[in-house]
Amino acid sequence: MDKLDTMFRMQQKLNEDIIRRRGLEGISNEEWIQKQTLAMLSEMAELLDEVNFKWWKNPKPIDADAVREELVDILHFFLSMCLCAGMDAEDLYRRYLNKNEENFKRQEGTSEKPGYAMPHA
């Protein structure tokens, strides 16, 4: 079992534990994804606070460990959304590879999707 599979398995167990302990049975996957998206946005706001995005304030030293912790919090909610959407580690990996290939094509101007043609020099 690889690391991504392990993370998916651990997240599934955590999700099940939270649902059981907090009596959250019966919430639809659609509503879970909405809730997890909001939670992820909250974690992203916490990440922004860690990296001095407020240009109107004096910057503070960046706590690299706190930044990493916020990224892991974001990953928890991302994995939960993947599970709610019926994705497993293999599906996520395959879709990532396909999208990464398409993103390179877009930057090279070879994508069939409109709007990515490279300007002529």
Strand element count: 0
The CATH class label is Mainly Alpha
Q: Distance N terminus to C terminus?
A: 49 Å
CATH architecture annotation: Orthogonal Bundle
Q: Name the shape in a single word.
A: extended
Helix-strand makeup class: mainly alpha
Average residue-wise pLDDT:
96
Number of domains: 1
Ranges with pLDDT <50 over ≥5 residues? none
Beta content comes to under 5%
CATH topology: Helix Hairpins
Give the name of the CATH superfamily. MazG-like
What count of helical segments does DSSP give? 4
Give an overview of the whole structure.
With 121 residues, this protein is mostly helical. The protein has a single domain, classed as MazG-like (Helix Hairpins). The protein is built from 4 helices and no strands. The longest helix has 22 residues, at 29-50. It is extended. The model has no long low-confidence stretch (mean pLDDT 96). InterPro entries: dUTPase/dCTP_pyrophosphatase.
